[in-house]
Design brief:
Layout: E1 2-4, H1 10-20, H2 24-32, H3 42-45, H4 59-73, E2 78-81, H5 86-101, E3 107-110, H6 122-130, E4 135-139, H7 146-154, E5 158-162, E6 176-178, H8 194-208, E7 216-224, E8 228-237, E9 240-250, H9 257-266, E10 272-274, H10 277-288, E11 296-298, H11 300-306, H12 315-321, H13 332-347, H14 357-369, H15 377-391, H16 395-403, H17 413-429, H18 433-440, H19 445-483, E12 489-492, H20 501-512, E13 516-522, E14 525-531, H21 538-543, E15 551-554, E16 558-564, H22 568-580, E17 591-593, E18 596-597, H23 606-614, E19 626-636, E20 646-652, E21 655-661, E22 675-687, E23 690-702
Parallel strand pairs: 1-17, 2-3, 2-4, 4-5, 5-6, 7-10, 10-11, 12-13, 18-19, 21-23
Antiparallel strand pairs: 7-8, 8-9, 13-14, 14-16, 15-16, 19-20, 19-22, 20-21, 22-23
Helix pairs in contact: 1-2, 4-8, 5-8, 5-14, 5-18, 6-7, 8-14, 12-13, 14-15, 14-17, 16-19, 17-18, 17-19, 18-19, 19-20
Length: 705
C-alpha cells in the first residue's frame, strides 16, 4: 500500500487557522487541498445566496433579461430546448418553472427524444418555425449551433443560449449568450453546470422584478483614528461592487487632495447608505467641517426588522461577530456593512432567497450528475440544494426520495449519484426524457407518485439493458485494451444502444482504469461517449479529431461526439495511432493520496465534523481520506457465503469504530486482534432513522511489528 500525503506550508496553515478559527488539522487539510486565497474559504464555510456570484456581472444576461421580460409581457410563444441527460432535464425544468412563476403562459419545452441527436438540428428548427415560436432558449446546449441559430434569426426568431460547454472559434448569432466558458463572458466562475446557468438566469429575471435592478448606491462608514477620520465608501450597482475609495482626512476642515478625491467619489447623486446616520454625520463633520452636508440613508431600522440579532449592536460590534469580513482584506467594518446591505437587499425579496431554494434542489442534482468540479460556488449550490433535499424537499421529489429510502436522511452527493440521478437519467437513455421532465414539472402529489413509479420501472429496464450490453462487449473490451497497449479501450459494437454509451464507458473505465470510448450506430450516423480517469482530458483528446465530427463537447472526465458513419474507419485508425504514441498507463500499484497521517489522539468525532465541512464531495474534491497506523481489529462480523464486503471494528485511540470495506483484497489474511494500517473516510451509517459514525475503508494492510 503506497501512501502519499501532500506537504503543507506551515505559514499558510497558521494564517488559515488564525483567520477562520480552525483547528490545526482542518487548516492543514484545507491548505493541502489548495486553499491558498483567503477569499476562497467562503466556498467551504458558507451557503448563503449573498456569497454566490451574480449573473448580472455579464452584459449578455442584461440583454437576455430584457428580451425574456418583453416576451412574457407580450405573451410570446417561448420554446425551451434542453438535453436528455439529468443536467439538461433539470435545467429545462428550472427554466420552465421559473418563467411560469414570472408570468409566462405560452411555453413549449422540448428535449431530444428517441434517437434524435444532441442539440439544435435542422428538424428542430423546422419544428420551431412551424410552431410559430418567437423566442427560443436553449439549456445545456446551443453554443455550437451556429447555422441553426442563424436560420432561426433569418426567420425572425430570437435565440438566447444558456450553456456551459466550451465554444468553438465562432459564437452563434444569438440575441444573448450566457455561457461562463465563453472568454470575456464576465462571469467569475467557468465551472457551472447547464442547470446552474439556467438557475442563475431565473435569479437574474427575479432580480429584475425588484427595485434593486438597475439601482446604484454608495455604502459608507467613517471611523476616528488618532488625529484623522478614516472614511471607506463602496459604490454598488445591482448590489455588485463597481468601485471603492478609502481616505484618511485630517480633522479640522483644511483642504486636501484626500478630501477632493472623496468628494468626487461621493458627488454623483447616489443615495449614501449607512448604519446609524447620526454617528456617521458627526464623523463626516469632523472630517469636512460643518459646511459640507452629505445626505445619508440609515438602514438600521430595516436591518433590525429583517435580522433582530443586529439590534443594539454597533457596527464595530457587528464587525467582530461578522463572518463575511473574514473573507476580505479590507477594513472589517466596511466589509461588514457591505455584507449587511447585500444581505438586507437579497433577503428582503423571497424570490431571491427563500423561494430560490427550490431551484437550488434541482441545480444541485444536475451539478452532481454532470460531474461538475466541486469547487468555487458549485460547493454552495450543491450544499444548499442537498440541505433542502434533506430537510424540505419539493413536492415532486418526495415520492422518489421515499422510494429510494432517502426520506428523512441527510442526503449526500453519493446519494444523488447512486439513487436520484440514475432514475432521472434512465428516461433519457431509453429515449423518453420528457417522462423525467414531467415529474420535475408536476405539482400534484398523486401524479408525482405515478410518474416516479414509471421512472423507477425505466431505471430497472435500463439496468437490465446495461448488464446485457456489458456482457456482449466485455470480450471486445479486453481485446481493445490489449491491442491499445493497456492505455485505452474502444468499443465499436452495433449491439450497444445509443442511450447507454456513457454508462457502459463509465463502468469499463472504472474496471480498466483507462479512458474508454463507446460508439453506437444510429442509422448512417455514429454517436459516442468517452469516460476517463481525472488524469486524462476527454474533451481535449476529442479535439484532435474534430474535423471528423459534426458535433462534439463535454468536460475533462466525460465527453461525446456524433459524426457520419462513413468517417468511422478513419477515426479508429487515427485514434489508434495517437493512443499507441501516448505514455503507457503503468502496471505498478496505485498510489493512494491521503489528506493526513493522524495520531490516535485525533481519532474523535471531530473528524466527522471536518468531513462535513469539506462536503460536498465530487470532481476535484474527493472524500476526506485519513491514514492511521497500528489500529487493532477488535471484532469481525460474521460473513454470509456470497458477501463481497467486510464489516469489522477498528480500535484506534480511545474507542473501537465500526468499519466497512466494500472492495477488500486478501480478506482471509485479516483476523481479530491483528494490527493494521488503514486509509479510511469518515462516514455515516443510516439505519432505521438513526445515524452512527463508521469508517469507510479505502485500503488496509497488516502493520509491521
Amino acid at each position: 500500500m503506497k501512501i502519499r500525503i501532500p506537504v503543507s506550508d506551515p505559514g499558510k496553515v497558521r494564517r488559515l487557522k488564525d483567520r477562520f478559527s480552525l483547528d490545526l488539522l482542518s487548516a492543514t487539510i484545507l491548505e493541502r487541498r489548495g486553499l491558498e486565497r483567503t477569499e476562497d474559504a467562503v466556498f467551504y464555510l458558507e451557503t448563503d445566496t449573498i456569497y454566490q456570484h451574480s449573473p448580472l456581472e455579464c452584459d449578455d444576461v442584461h440583454t437576455a433579461v430584457e428580451r425574456i421580460n418583453d416576451a412574457i409581457e407580450e405573451d410570446e410563444s417561448i420554446f425551451i430546448f434542453g438535453d436528455r441527460d439529468v443536467d439538461g432535464v433539470t435545467g429545462a425544468a428550472i427554466l420552465c418553472r421559473g418563467l411560469k412563476k414570472l408570468g409566462a403562459k405560452n411555453i413549449t419545452v422540448r428535449l431530444p427524444e428517441g434517437d434524435e441527436p444532441y442539440g439544435l438540428t435542422d428538424d428542430i428548427v423546422r419544428e420551431i418555425l412551424d410552431g410559430k415560436h418567437t423566442l427560443v432558449i436553449t439549456v445545456d446546449n446551443g453554443i455550437s449551433a451556429i447555422d441553426e441559430i442563424r436560420e432561426l434569426g433569418r426567420n425572425g426568431v430570437d435565440t438566447i443560449v444558456l450553456d456551459h460547454h466550451l465554444p468553438g472559434e465562432n459564437l452563434p448569432p444569438a440575441v444573448a449568450i450566457f455561457d461562463p466558458k465563453v472568454e470575456g463572458s464576465g462571469y467569475a466562475f467557468d465551472g457551472l453546470s447547464g442547470c446552474a446557468v439556467a438557475a442563475k438566469m431565473i435569479w437574474a429575471l427575479s432580480f429584475s422584478r425588484t427595485p434593486l435592478y438597475g439601482s446604484e448606491c454608495i455604502v459608507l462608514h467613517a471611523e476616528p483614528r488618532n488625529s484623522s477620520i478614516r472614511i471607506n465608501a463602496v459604490r454598488l450597482e445591482n448590489i455588485i461592487e463597481i468601485g471603492r475609495i478609502t481616505e484618511e482626512i485630517a480633522e479640522g476642515g483644511a483642504a486636501s487632495r484626500e478630501k477632493d478625491r472623496l468628494m468626487e467619489f461621493l458627488a454623483v447623486g447616489l443615495p449614501v447608505m449607512v448604519l446609524d446616520a447620526d454617528t456617521e454625520k458627526k464623523m463626516l463633520r469632523r472630517a469636512f467641517g460643518n459646511g459640507v452636508d452629505i445626505s445619508l440613508v440609515d438602514i438600521r431600522e430595516r436591518l433590525e426588522a429583517l435580522m433582530p440579532v443586529v439590534r443594539s449592536h454597533s457596527l464595530f460590534d457587528l464587525s467582530m461577530l461578522s463572518r463575511a469580513a473574514r473573507y476580505k482584506d479590507g477594513d472589517r467594518e466596511i466589509e461588514t456593512l457591505v455584507s449587511l446591505f447585500r444581505s438586507l437587499s437579497i433577503h428582503s425579496y423571497p424570490s431571491l432567497s427563500t423561494e430560490y431554494d427550490e431551484v437550488m434542489e434541482l441545480a444541485a442534482i444536475g451539478t452532481v450528475a454532470d460531474l461538475m468540479p466541486m469547487k468555487d460556488e458549485n460547493r454552495m449550490i450543491v450544499k444548499r440544494g442537498l440541505r433542502m433535499l434533506s430537510e424540505k424537499p419539493v413536492l415532486f421529489l418526495r415520492s422518489l426520495l421515499g422510494r429510494q429510502n432517502l426520506a428523512g436522511k441527510k442526503i449526500s452527493t453519493r446519494d444523488v449519484s447512486f439513487y436520484i440521478a440514475p432514475v432521472l437519467n434512465a428516461a433519457g437513455r431509453l429515449g423518453h426524457p420528457m417522462d423525467a421532465l414531467a415529474l420535475l414539472l408536476s405539482d400534484d402529489a398523486a401524479e408525482a407518485d405515478g410518474l416516479t413509479d414509471n421512472l423507477l420501472a425505466m431505471n430497472r429496464q435500463r439496468q437490465g439493458n446495461e448488464e446485457n450490453a456489458l456482457s456482449l462487449v466485455r470480450d471486445k473490451a479486453k481485446e481493445s485494451f490489449e491491442k491499445l497497449g493497456e492505455r485505452f479501450v474502444i468499443i465499436d459494437d452495433e449491439s450497444v444502444p445509443r442511450g447507454l454509451t456513457g454508462a457502459i464507458a463509465a463502468k469499463l473505465s472504472k474496471e480498466y482504469s483507462v479512458p474508454v470510448l463507446v460508439m453506437a450506430s444510429v442509422g448512417e450516423r455514429i454517436s459516442a461517449s468517452v469516460r476517463c480517469p481525472e488524469s486524462f482530458n476527454a474533451k481535449s483528446f476529442l479535439s484532435s479529431f474534430s474535423s471528423l465530427f459534426d458535433d462534439y463537447g463535454g468536460h475533462r472526465c466525460a465527453a461525446g461526439f456524433s459524426m457520419p458513419a462513413a468517417n468511422k474507419e478513419m477515426l479508429l485508425q487515427m485514434m489508434e495511432n495517437v493512443i499507441l504514441s501516448m505514455d503507457g498507463s503503468g502496471a505498478e500499484d496505485e498510489e493512494i493520496t491521503a489528506d493526513a497521517d493522524i495520531p490516535s489522539e485525533y481519532m474523535t468525532t471531530g473528524l466527522w465534523r471536518l468531513s462535513s465541512m469539506l462536503e460536498p464531495y465530487g470532481q476535484g474534491n474527493e472524500a476526506l481520506r485519513l491514514y492511521i497506523r497500528g489500529a487493532v481489529i477488535s471484532d469481525m462480523m460474521p460473513e454470509k457465503s456470497d458477501q463481497k464486503f467486510m464489516r469489522f471494528s477498528l480500535r484506534f485511540g480511545a474507542y473501537a469504530w465500526p468499519a466497512v470495506w466494500w472492495t477488500p483484497h486478501n480478506r482471509e489474511t485479516f483476523k481479530k486482534g491483528m494490527r493494521v494500517n488503514a486509509v479510511f473516510t469518515p462516514d455515516m451509517n443510516y439505519w432505521k432513522g438513526t445515524e452512527k459514525e463508521q469508517l469507510l475503508i479505502v485500503d488496509m494492510e497488516a502493520a509491521e511489528n
